Amino acid sequence: MKIGILIPQFPGQTHIFFWREILELEKMGGSVALFSTRPPPSALIAHDWSDAAIARTTYLVDMAPANAALALARAPLAALRRDLRAEPRAFARDVVLSLPAARRLVLACRARGITHVHAHSCGRAALICALANRMFGLSYSLTLHGALADYGPGQGFKWRHAAFGCAVSRRLIRDLKATLGPDLPDDLHLQPMGVDTDVLSRDAPYRPPDPGQPLQLFSCGRLNRLKGHQDLLQALRHLRESGLDARLEIAGEDDNGGSGFRIELQADIARLGLEDHVTLLGAIDAGAVRDHLQQAHLFVLATWHEALGVAYMEAMSMGVPTIGTETGGVPELITSGRDGLLVPPRDPETLACAIGELATDPARLAALSKAGRARVIENFSSARGARTLIDALTGT
Predict the structure, then answer these.
(1) Residues 184-213: what's their mean pLDDT?
(2) Which CATH number does the domain housing residue 259 bear?
(3) Which of 107, 163, 97, 108 is nearest to 130 (CA)?
(4) Which CDD domains does the record associate with it (predicted)?
């Protein structure tokens, strides 16, 4: 079975779960062609598999005059008319920018004998696929990875012509049905992201901190205000003021390669007097993330909103007790008190209390370590998303 996978700005710093799914598809006998809009900024290309991924990815941004003119001549104006009238002007701009990429996608698929493309985005990647469908009949599907409002206008057009659709959480499926209703394809699937639990396993059993030993906290996520790193810094300040010797490492970079939100975080670290207790690691590869998780006593991500949370899965797979926030689809992954803890978002004091209570309860830390890994093994392996795609494509 041949399938195209379209991922925007691939391979980015958070794209490890896409790569895992691609490898699983190939293990299951699929032949995968990779497409992307454009490469990410060089500072965000951090994985040991990035070069291999780039080498096999076809990048679709092509504004050559000839390609743009031929694409514009095939613009599906009749199919777009209703949406162009109803949507803001930004949608018309997105259509014009996406038409050349849609033509390029179709030509590449025809050359490789590919008849279906799955877009792992509901932004411009989904629009490219929908235009390719209306212009040339290319079959496509798409996965929603976060709040629909984050992916721009024209969602009705993007979903209306898809062969099937997926979302990474039940909450997102409910939101899709409430928002788009009749514009959705009949075939909708739950397709949570997943991790390789064989690779993400410990070399030695988890050990809670010894008495008097500093508490090692680890967090992993893009440096973005919505990830709540600033709240975690506030919580760390509370912990240290209460007498708990806690240290924090944060893996991830901002979307500008270090010249964006990272600067604000560095200022917060200095203002809170945490320069000797917080390390910003930047964008690091999956192997380095695994190494840091293996040394951590506790994983914390204080995100304000999260569709599901691969970083939580990675920590739980590694048997690291995990604290997340009760937002988005995170409660579908973490059952608070059973296989991790959930706290309200934007609440540094409650977060500090949760960390402090766990730090002094080694038996509870050990129990959460075991339960978290068991939860991911049972429900969130990387093979699940690949199997969902294959089953949807084959009608099984």
Answers:
(1) 95
(2) 3.40.50.2000
(3) 163
(4) GT4_PimA-like (cd03801)
* Residue 396 banded pLDDT, cuts 50, 70, 90: low
One DSSP character per residue, 315-368 reads: HHHTT--EEEES-TTHHHH--BTTTBEEE-TT-HHHHHHHHHHHHT-HHHHHHH
What are the phi and psi torsion angles at 142 (to 5°)?
-155, 155
Cα 92 to Cα 98: distance, rounded to the nearest angstrom: 10
Element (H, E) at 188: strand 188-190
For tokens 């039940």, the residue is 170
Map residue 269 onto helix, strand or coil: helix
- Say yes or no: 262 and 316 in one domain: yes
pLDDT of residue 47: 85
Whether the CB-CB separation of 125 and 43 falls below 8 Å is answered with no
Paired residues of 195 in beta bridges:
381
Check pLDDT > 70 for residue 65.
yes
- Domain carrying residue 15: 2-194+382-394
User: Which among 335, 323, 325, 324 has a CA at the least distance from the CA of 374?
Assistant: 335
Q: What is the mean pLDDT of residues 124-131?
A: 98
Q: What is the pLDDT of residues 241-288, one digit of tens each?
A: 999 999 999 999 998 989 999 999 999 999 999 999 999 999 999 899
Instruction: List, edge to edge, every strand of the sheet that includes 246-251.
Output: 278-282, 246-251, 215-220, 298-300, 322-325, 341-343
C-alpha span between 124 and 91 (Å, rounded): 10
Q: Residue 214: is its pLDDT beyond 80?
A: yes
What token pair was written down for 69? 């003119």
* Whether residue 359 has pLDDT greater than 90: yes
Q: How far is CA 337 from CA 82, 168, 324, 344, 379, in A?
A: 49, 23, 11, 14, 18
Predicted TM-score (pTM) above 0.85: yes
Instruction: Compute the half-sphere exposure of residue 204: CA atoms within 13 Å on the CB side of its CA.
Output: 6
Distance CA 39, CA 60 (A): 10
pLDDT of 176 reads 97
In this structure, the answer to whether residues 369 and 390 fall within a common structural domain is: no
CA distance 312 to 335: 12
Side-chain-side CA neighbours of residue 284 (13 Å) = 19
Within-domain flag for 175: yes
| 116-119/278-282 β-pairing | unpaired
83 and 182 both lie in a single domain: yes
